[in-house]
Design goal:
Helix content is about 65%, strand content about 10%. By secondary structure, it is α+β, with helices and mostly antiparallel strands. The chain has a 5-stranded antiparallel β-sheet with strand order 4-3-2-1-5. Helix 1 packs antiparallel against helix 4.
Length: about 220
Amino acid sequence: MVSSALQITGLLIGGIGMIGTFAVTGMPQWRVSAFIENNIIVFETIWEGLWMHCIRQANIRMQCKVYDSMLALSPDLQASRGLMCAGSVLSFLAFIIAIIGMKCTRCAQSSWQAKDCIILTAGLLFILSGAVELIPVCWVANTIISDFYNPIVNVAQKRELGEALYLGWVAAFCLIAAGAIFCCFCRCCEKTRSYGHSAPTHYRTHSQRLHRKTESSYSKSQYV
């Protein structure tokens, strides 16, 4: 009962992380225009994402345009596009594998050892997808902060952290937490199974020793 609840909790957290990863990959709010010094035109807000950039005018009208070429992106956004796609695929595979390996899922001729291996694979994939997602999110955030405090960069080109970066950190944390839950579950099951197998062996060894002592004492008495 407890193990099933733990698996369901890990699956829910992993599902939240997977959906968050998909959302972060498609959101345009990676970089948001900063209103500092002379740049106080609050009439429009500029968003820059992995696939498009948008201009929102006074919460009334928003126009988005897909990048004409990948070369138009900065190096960090170019790498982030590939890493986020890889993280999305890994999180989806981990989620599907976790569903197959759960105790409440019945597969054809699947043993408990096979399910434990499947759950362990899903946990490792969740952790890997969270780590892959953290790389682009932290990279872009570091670039934004460095340019913000760089006096050489023009004020109009400075950006702030967008909502997609904060959501990316939360999604990556959920993926890593789900992977840790599944890995700990497999470890606890392995310890329980090893204890269950070792206890009867010890009992049989002890009973065999008693049986041998009884036979030896009986033979001695019979000899006398």
